[in-house]
Amino acid sequence: PKMPDFWTVGLEPSDAMPFTAQTVDIDGAVRKASANRTDIEESKNSLARNDVNIRFFRNQILPQVNATASYRSNAVGGVFLSPVDLTSIGAPRSVVAEHGFGSVLGDVLGSAFPTWQVGLTLSYPLGTSSQETNLAKARLEYAQEETQLKNLEMQVATQVRDAGRQVQTNQKRVDSARAARQLAERRLEAEEKKFAAGIQISFFVFQAQRDLAQARTSEIRAIADYNKSLVDFEA
Questions:
Q1: How confident is the model over 37-75, as pLDDT tens digits?
Q2: Cα–Cα nearest to 224, from 25, 184, 164, 216
């Protein structure tokens, strides 16, 4: 700012503001946003998790049936005495048989004395259980997530459609500003011809120049807004 010509330097862009009219597919953009946006994917994943919780807690409130089965192979070893004779109390008992470790091991491996056990257990919760409470909570959370997903999809569709309409509106603004600038150029041309012919004063020429500068500024601003709206729409 300390330079003497700082406030009088004129800047002339080497290139004009680019403008290329594009047709936007708003419905396709809404479908693309609904399929690819991260916030919608997160909401869908949360909804899927709640669905898993509902199925889990629904299984918890069902009756439980447990079946068990077992098999054992028994054997007895040692010294086997004769039975007690009640008619002759005090009489000595004789050794009937004697099974050592090898004999016991053979009985076990050969399933000489097998034992089978089969069981069936049925359980059912009476009254209101914690599983039913958890199921009701999971269903409520699922309904909330489903509502939030629908609201989010509506918000996304609204945002995309607003961005698409902004592109279309700014394109019409560019067309309008361009027509206004062309009209201002023709008016300045006419005023300059009148001034050169001596039938018009310089005031009207200066006024036409001012209007043309304003029209060019409006056109540049409209083109810039259009390009920004295209970027917002793609985002």
A1: 898 999 999 999 999 999 998 888 888 889 999 988 877
A2: 216
pLDDT digit string (tens) for 119-137? 998 887 776 678 888 888 9
CA distance 127 to 132: 10
Residue 235 tokens read as 């985002």
The CB density around residue 84, as the number of other CB atoms within 10 Å, is: 9
Q: How far apart are CA 116 and CA 186, in angstroms?
A: 110
Max intra-chain CA distance, the chain: 164
Residue bearing tokens 């150029």: 185
Please report the sign of the dihedral spanned by the C-alpha atoms of residue 147, residue 151, residue 154, residue 156.
negative
User: Is the CB of residue 33 less than 8 Å from the CB of residue 232?
Assistant: no
Q: Which pTM value belongs to this model?
A: 0.58
Tokens of 88: 């002759």
> CA-to-CA distance for 179 and 162, rounded, in angstroms?
26
Query: What secondary structure, in 3-state letters, does the chain show?
Result: CCCCCHHHCCCCCCCCCCCCCCCCCHHHHHHHHHHHCHHHHHHHHHHHHHHHHHHHHHHHCCCEEEEEEEEEEECCCEEEECCCCCCCCCCCCCEEEEECHHHHHHHHHCCCEEEEEEEEEEECCCCCCHHHHHHHHHHHHHHHHHHHHHHHHHHHHHHHHHHHHHHHHHHHHHHHHHHHHHHHHHHHHHHHHHHHHCCCCHHHHHHHHHHHHHHHHHHHHHHHHHHHHHHHHHC
